[in-house]
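Troubleshooting: if your tokenizer reports a length mismatch, compare against these two reference records.
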Amino acid sequence: MNTLIVLQNGRVIDPANAVDRKADVWIQDGRITEAGSAIPPDAQVFNLEGKWVVPGLIDMHVHLREPGQEYKETVETGAQAAAAGGFTAVACMPNTNPINDSASVTRFILERAAGAAARIYPVGAISQGSNGAELAEYGEMKRAGVAALSDDGRPVVDSQLMRRAMEYASGYNLLVISHSEERSLSHNGSMNESVVSTRLGLKGIPNAAESIAVFREVALAELTGVPVHIAHVSTGDSVDIIRYAKSRGVRVTAETAPHYFTLTDAAVEGYNTNAKMSPPLRSESDRQKIRIALQDGTLDAIATDHAPHSILEKNVEFDHAANGIIGLETSLPLTLALVREGVISESRMVELMSVAPARILGVPGGSLAVGDVADVTVIDPERQFTYTKEMIVSKSANSPFIGWKLQGKAVLTLLGGRTTHNVL
């Protein structure tokens, strides 16, 4: 029998079970077990006074780059970065090389994930090669282990193909995740269309490039009755569309990323390629609307869109730099800033970063009920640190937050009762 683990004196925040109180959490044989009246002498005890004990965080949108671009990230290093950020599970997008549009690639990813520091949920491609022409084989990928479908990085341009994808996916109980982008408006753009882009002489991408595509997905979800999930929402216009759709009962969920509620397009000043992403950083007005949407439930989840790149892709002219930033190790402290500012509650944070991602993807997690697998994150909300390149666990260091003073850190991550990260 495995050693009993006792997480003692922490504040247990478990919104799925309406728990928010100081309590002990007992773990035996990899699962949450009933707390006893006396702790056995051979138990492993963690005194967590002043810490929060929450269900393991789940990131439903990451890029692990394997197979094909292992110099940027691997399944193993991505999982290690996830554990360091407090995540016990991540869903990895299919834009690898080759594209994850088949059972063989899905199986390869899951083989690489065996024994990793986080649970890995592969997301399969909507279309073959993510080229938007023909649907991939969903049944085959579902049997191999995909958790959802997306052509992330590329929008599905053909509306009829997207409709068929949603209908086909529903037969396998697979969620379609939309990269919502109207390419005719965003083509050759490299940042938000604004006074900043004009001043820097960079071609801008208007808000409408996202919101037009979000409107289409909402319309298709309403037409088919099939749920759709909107990835990386960046604009207030998209928020308004999603909010109205939800008020009408349309089956739509949506996520945003920490950079969209923390930064604006001002971060691009100086042609900072670590502030280049897709969709781009938007205006202060958009940032505020994203924060309100996290508060009122319009946005369901926070996901990092962790996108590792090497200096080969980032230390180039801004127009030619790759889109994306790493985010697994900064997501928690950046979200905790919303808690300190009173934008969201502690319980709402756990909902956004654990409960909702599990529910939306239909995977285990988001709960600390007796009998549940012991995927647990322990947070020190007061720990302050300066985020430096040297402390980054990911293989890549393309982050606009390097040098920032941050507060709040995952200090212990348990995966099925196994310690994957410990800086207590």
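Reference record two:
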Amino acid sequence: MSRLIEAMVCHAPGEPLRREMVMLRDVRADEVLVEIMASGLCHTDLHQLDGSSAPFPFPVIVGHEGAGIVREIGAAVSTVQPGDHVIPLTIAECGVCGNCRSGRTNLCEAFLATLGQPQDCVTLDGQAVSTYSGVGSLARFVLVKEMNVAKIRKDVPFDLACLAGCAVATGVGAVTRTAHVQPGENVAVFGLGGIGLNVVQGARLAGAGRIIGIDINPERGAQAANFGLTDFIDPRACPDVPARIRQISDGGVNHAFECVGNATLMAQALESTRIGCGCCTVLGVPPDGTSMPLATFSLQLGRTVKGSFLGNVKTRSELPKLLDLCASGDLDFDGLVSQRLPMSRVNEGFDLMRRGEALRVVVSF
């Protein structure tokens, strides 16, 4: 049956989130009700809140990096049970469509078919409330389809497990599932926030040689060194970043990753790669309408540009394995969390992100 739940709602671009009691409709046959135990804050949430990249209409409940416990399942659900620990997923994995069976992409056709479609899970005083990326994890409970939920091991705490739902999958997956970095190859990472740090530790896991980080925050160099960074460049003290990278890496890196969402940095990342075989992978989400300035001669010289959505990680079958790497110590989840806050201070968490004072903020009710 429908229920009133607590949620943090943003009513208009630039406004702070407000605690509201919203109505969550009943569970349908193919759906799962998840109680959210922890949620990480991501820059794409911030872009929605600020209105710079806002694909979902206001009012909206942001949050897409959650972890929680299954509390109720629909009559047709068979792969999870009440009490299971799960991550609600932004990208479905139906397992039967052409994309799922291809082995080449994580962009399930069921996910693509729902992009931009109206949502009907949550209302406030009779008005529809959007749930960001179909999740909206800054709420006490969320409703997702069975193909949008991944069962995870129970021995990883929720405040760490939630990071696999976006930051870890996006960064580590971009290295291992999109770019396919090989042992000994050199890597450059533009932007050392939550995504960039996971690119760094993904590159370390892949056996990369030089791992070069670029960030205007000098503290990020020392922080990223704990995840495997070998070299750091502060662009404010370096007039030609691509040239410096090519110098450090003896002609250019094999792989460059743009993790900010800045078109100028995307172009710099491409120019920092090696002629003949260099690859630039774009992870950052730019403001709506942004175009990447591209010198076509760079492509004729054998360089390539790739995009990556959630690291090309298949969400139900592959994402839970990231928790195995956390449990074994091969991936550092705990070092990514710079602040843990109660949900009542979620606006403070976003302010920390705006000021560049946070790696990953995790909030919980």
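Descriptive notes for reference record two:
- The first strand starts at residue 3 and ends at 9.
- The two ends are 23 Å apart (CA to CA).
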